[in-house]
Amino acid sequence: MTAATSPTRGTTTAEHELAALQREHGGPLFALLLRLCDGDRQRAEDLAQETLVRAWQHPEALHADAFDSVRPWLLTVARRLAIDARRARRARPAEVGDEVPENARVTADHAERAAEMLDVREAVKTLTPEHRDVLVLVYFLGASVAEAAQTLGVPPGTVKSRAFYALRALRRVLPGYAADLH
Questions:
Q1: DSSP secondary-structure letter at 153?
Q2: Residue 79: what pLDDT?
Q3: What are phi and psi of 83, to 5 degrees?
Q4: What is the Cα–Cα distance from 115 to 110, expressed in whole angstroms?
Q5: What's the pTM?
Q6: Nearest CA to 163 among 113, 179, 176, 143?
Q7: CA nearest 134: which of 126, 123, 144?
């Protein structure tokens, strides 16, 4: 768009028209966008500015003789921009906000947990059948020492002893997991 330069203050005619457009239609334009943006003032201001940029890019729409006012054209453009912005927000993940990533709650990594389970299963396979049976009953199935003793047909002290030695053997096989095996 070429516009003549105004002799005063070096502004163009297009800039004067845009400023007049803002003064005349800015209030209703912003009110509409504020409603469409569910009260988000910042987003409404951004969309109002984008609407005026579109008006600047399409001067033929502002000077059309087919209608008395440019307000319907501006409001239609603003409405379409608001709809596009809403669709774009829905298409991408939610924004984090003020939360600092270093302080954000970490959720468990399922792949890492699955790999740990495989490591533990392989390590348990290296134990003697007596030690393995005690670990499975007490630690994996949640049986008490008395229940494990009854199931295995051994005294409770034997269950405790086998559990102790089984965990010690696992600590040797799984050195990276030693803190979890106490």
A1: T
A2: 92
A3: -65, -45
A4: 9
A5: 0.45
A6: 143
A7: 144
95: left (phi over 0), alpha (psi -120 to 50) or beta: beta
**Distance between CA 93 and CA 118 in Å, rounded?**
32
pLDDT single digits (tens) 16-44: 888 888 888 889 889 889 888 888 899 99
pLDDT tens column, 123-181: 888 899 999 999 889 888 888 999 999 999 999 999 999 999 998 988 888 877 655 55
Secondary structure percentages of the chain, helix, strand, coil, to 5: 70, 0, 25
The candidate with the shortest Cα–Cα distance to 168, out of 133, 129, 127, 139, is 127
Q: Which residue has the tokens 């921009």?
A: 81
Whether the CB-CB separation of 132 and 166 falls below 8 Å is answered with yes
**Residue of 104 and 152 predicted with greater confidence:** 152
Q: Helix and strand tally (H, E) in the chain?
A: 8, 0
DSSP reduced 3-state for 99? coil
Q: Is the dihedral of CA 74, 80, 81, 82 positive or negative?
A: positive
